[in-house]
## 1
Amino acid sequence: MKKVELALGTRSYQIHIGINNLSRLGPEMRKLGLRGKVLIVTNTKVEPLYAESLIDTLKETGFSVHKAVLPDGENYKNLDNVAFIYDCAFNAGLDRQSSIIALGGGVVGDMAGFAAATYMRGINFIQVPTTLLAQVDASIGGKVAVNHPQGKNMIGAFYQPRMVFMDIATLLTLSSGEIRSGFAEIIKYGVISNHSLYSYLEEHPFLENIDNLEYWMDVVEKSCLIKAQVVSKDEREQGLRAILNFGHTIGHGLEAATSYQKYSHGEAVAIGMVGAACIAREMGLISSGEEERIKNLIGKTGLPVSYSDISWDDLWFYIQRDKKAQDGNINFILPTSIGSVILSPVDSELMRKVLEQELVK
């Protein structure tokens, strides 16, 4: 099992990356001094796959285990379902020494983490991500939130888990579309920080390695290292951490404008990365050759590079609500080369022109 350290002083924790290692979660929790009652938060899709075996191993190590099963889907990431988690926590008698475990993808992790951050003003939280997107991104860094009709992730907190524990073998139960969605975030890491990772992704297409768990161990570990390094330097997104939002300004707008029904998160981010690269080229920040490399890898991966049936007014409505907006200005993460990005304001008319000319199909 590989371990990546996320250094945050007294809130530091380890990211455990292994294969067929779920049975080791209980002992690792014990090493952290955790005990008592546990609430596993999962969803209807993941629960029949992993919940019972995880419950068994936790009981074997002395935990009293309870379960909250949520509906599956981004459109359920709201305060109503967080209230359901609270109900389950109260009914189970969770106290301040208890733990909430998120077993699932990013939606489950966000809701479980937000509930853990606010139940009794904060109890122990463990991330057990079962999707590629959650393993390389959503489970790491302590951003927990729910959506609001006015925008994505607008209600939330920074609340670090005690541990992130991932079993790479869970990826074998995912569809190629779900893997593809998570792969968008790995592409993101290459663009923002690591040219050699990006070149590796170009040379080793994921579809040729979709069942190769050692391949996934490698790229997941590299992705986790990048995110851990960034978060360790800027936990609350005051500066450097903003680079992790490459592709997300447009991506979150697309998700919200389509009520989280048309694009997966990874698909929306993929379109957003293409849009940001096109804007950067238009502003003279990146060469057309480097912009094409970004667009080509995203396209060859099978991710979308354009969108349709969304008006500029609808998209702009949600882009303006991006959390990086300041005093009415929209700040974008823009690539200057493969492996390097900057934070820069973008004029709305320039944005509209680029998107309508190059991304709308």
Note: The radius of gyration is 20 Å.
## 2
Amino acid sequence: MRIGQSMIPEFEAEMANTRKVLERIPDDKLDWKIHEKSNTIGWVANHLADIPGWVDMTINKASLDVAPVDGEPYQTPSESTTAAILALFDDNVAKAKPILEGVEDATLMQPWSLLQGGQELMTLPKLVVVRTWVFNHSIHHRAHLCVYLRVNDLPVPGLYGPSGDEATT
């Protein structure tokens, strides 16, 4: 079994959990933010919907320049409804899965670079980028959304077992 294929069960589980959190966001809370210095729920949700798309960008390209000198900077999507955010997320997950399933181990060991204005910010093996910047990064921002749901008195879904909203005592 190739490495990418071995990652599929975890990818599916984490993306399913992420979708459960995204589904809970009411449209009227997309502009809410917990603090002046924080991003809105809508920004975090759009960012989460975008992250699975990074599988393609990482595996099929050698780098990403987030602010190319002669081009447009990378932009987080800005869908304005939960339904549109979920559609983007589902599309990115659906595209990412076959890429992971089909990637050769040697490709995952190739370097991938994040650039800004042509300057290298980091270079890591593609496998590390997928693990860190897709899997772990999704979990990180999903946790933000769970806190945002809680402080807005919205039910938090269970992810690795029942949440306080789903637990029975």
Note: The longest strand covers residues 119-125.
## 3
Amino acid sequence: MKIGNLVLENPLILAPMAGITQLPFRRLAREAGCALVVTEMVSANGLVHGSKKTTELLISHPNERPLSAQIFGADPEIMKEAALIVQTAGADLLDVNLGCSVRRVIRQGAGAALMREPERLEAVLKGIRSAVSLPLTVKMRTGWEPSGKQAIRAARIAEYCGVDAVAIHPRTAIQGFSGRADWSLIARLKESVSMSVIGNGDIRGPDDVLRMQRETGCDGVMIGRAAIGNPWIFTQALDLMHARPPRWPDRPKRLNTVLRYIDYAVNHFGEGRAVRILRSRLGWFTKGLPHSSCFRASIARLKTTQEMVDAVRTYFESLETADLS
């Protein structure tokens, strides 16, 4: 798959998710075969005003490349400046958020609110395109009503402004994750623009990746919630694409992945912060396994990396050696 001058090794992309697609998890996704990972949503205002917390979201590691950085904002000049900061920071691709409907984002006129203001959207995208040479994408929802007209209008504006690809999660801005994603809109969008279209929404397993491509004709598939604690979904989807039986992680592979995640988190955040984060993150990787609730409870008060590692090893050693899929 190609986005601008960036050639991806396959059509699988990790969706940006606040508090989830931090650097340590992005590395796991890349190792599992994901072709492109995306940062958490980054505030353009925060970048331009030098917020340390915001700027840290752009820190990357060579092993996660290529990396897309997603920004949100509504002021054309601020977005243009933020885009330049992203380019200077070394991202391989820039994405503009047109889908977030969280109140604090909408109040700024950003995220999905931009889909209601075509003139402002055009000004934002033109400004960014004039400032940076990075491949440029937008990620959007259906809009504020289910017809999809706003999404098609926004995509056409984006293409006119020089955007290289559009990712669409076909639920409305107010729908959240309720109901079902309307994949027919992905197909309609693909017919409405000539740039690459990336489908997103209701990918629950590797079979859904192939089904979305078959039903919609989309160029790429973006996987979000199904990858949380399950980076192996990328490996399994690639297996199916190559007509191979999907590989399910056995106990040693799961253990190894969790230990790497701990190591990546400590290296990135430092031990104290990493341990606090890991208390709620390690449970992702044991969902559906025997006694996972006991494991989550056992790590809730741990304070050191070694305690985390010991707890993980103890838990996995307690599991039966049978297939854990």
Note: The radius of gyration is 20 Å.
